[in-house]
Every structure is written in C-alpha cells, then in structure tokens.
Amino acid sequence: MREPSPEITQRELRNDAGAILRAVERGESCTITRNGTPIGCLIPLGWRTYVHREQVMAAFAASPTVDPERLRADLDAAAEQDPFDRDR
C-alpha cells in the first residue's frame, strides 16, 4: 500500500511555496491542511496515481445504477434534439 503523503499546513505552503513546488516537481506529493483539516493535495502532473482495487470498489459501491436508455432520453431532452430527425 502507498505511504500517506506528508501534511503541509497552509502557513508552510505560503511561507515555503518554492521548496514545496520543487518537491512536487521531483515527483513527491503532499496534503495541504488548514487548522488540522486536510483541504487538498498537491500531486505532480504526468505521474500516474495508483488506486487500489478495494478503494475503487468502495467508492463505487454506493453509486446508483445507470439506466442507459433513461440517460440517453435525458440527454436528448436536455439538448432539445430528436436523434432520428436528421433534416435539421
């Protein structure tokens, strides 16, 4: 399992942004906190973040099931188009 990223306070980010961004540029990531509460993450672009299967399955476990026909009908209604009317 991946090690948790180091936590950096809002104040540390403000006071040492250059060094922190250089670390991110080297491939490191960090979690930004405000008053001890995590509010965001800095991750390097271009680096793939691996998410364990268990985490993905847990994230989608409570997701609603998508009915493809209803989704298409909703999208067509929102776009105000008839997919079979090609004369427009």
Question: Could you tell me the number of beta strands?
Answer: 3
Give average pLDDT, whole number.
Answer: 86
Structural class: alpha+beta
Number of separate structural domains:
1
In the CATH classification, which architecture applies? 3-Layer(aba) Sandwich
Widest β-sheet, arrangement of strands: 1-2-3
**What distance lies between the first and last C-alpha atoms, to the nearest angstrom?**
54 Å
Total count of helical runs of at least 4 residues: 4
Q: List segments where confidence is low: pLDDT < 50 over at least 5 consecutive residues.
A: none
For the record, the CATH class is: Alpha Beta
Shape by Cα distribution: elongated
Commentary on this structure:
This is Prevent-host-death family protein. Belongs to the phD/YefM antitoxin family. This protein is of the alpha+beta class and 88 residues long. The chain has a single domain, classed as YefM-like fold (3-Layer(aba) Sandwich). 41% of the residues lie in helices and 16% in strands. Strands 1-2-3 form a 3-stranded mixed beta sheet. A hairpin with a 2-residue loop joins β2 and β3. The mean pLDDT is 86.
Please give the structural blueprint.
Blueprint: E1 7-9, H1 10-15, H2 17-25, E2 30-34, E3 37-42, H3 53-61, H4 68-79
Parallel strand pairs: 1-2
Antiparallel strand pairs: 2-3
InterPro entries: YefM-like_sf
Protein name: Prevent-host-death family protein
Organism: Paractinoplanes brasiliensis
